[in-house]
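Hi Q.,

Before the meeting this afternoon, I wanted you to have the zinc ion prediction in hand. No need to reply - just skim if you have a minute. The sequence and ligand are here:
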Amino acid sequence: MENSSFAKCQKCGTGDLVPLSDFGGQGAAIHYKAWVCTNPDCGYNIKIRNGEVYINEPILSGALHSRSHREFAPK
Ligand SMILES: [Zn+2]
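Predicted structure with the ligand bound:
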């Protein structure tokens, strides 16, 4: 029974591409969308930033998170 509302990952064919959203420190939505494969062995990801599409950028989970926090932290 096919009941998937997400796109199948075209790289590994087993995972789904799920959308991720992020929010700034004040709860404002970040204009940044990412679709990431649910298969941890695959790691395929698509990001849309400022109208440009980034495919399969390396994910630096910890570093990326702290960097986005710094960008949105009030000085
Ligand atoms: Zn995949």
